[in-house]
Amino acid sequence: MTETSPCRVLVCTHYRFGPQAQSCAMRGSEELLAALQQAAAEGRLAAEVEVGVCFGHCTIGPNVKIVGGALLHGVAPHDVAAVVDAVAARSD
């Protein structure tokens, strides 16, 4: 019997600088990362949560990639339940 690898959730925490710059970090992705990591630690999110690379959608971030699943845009800390649902849908 083989063991399946856990789901990975990647959160962009990239900063862009400049007068017109928009980025996931400037839109609260570090707070989102902490909320998702807490949900995983509490067992509400069945995934490993990690810092990810820039996904190139800075103007609609924060962006979250469920490895093997969806790329989510505009995710905020209050959206943790939606990420939990997206992870569960990946494993269905």
UniProtKB/TrEMBL annotation:
This is Thioredoxin-like [2Fe-2S] ferredoxin. It comes from the Bacteria.
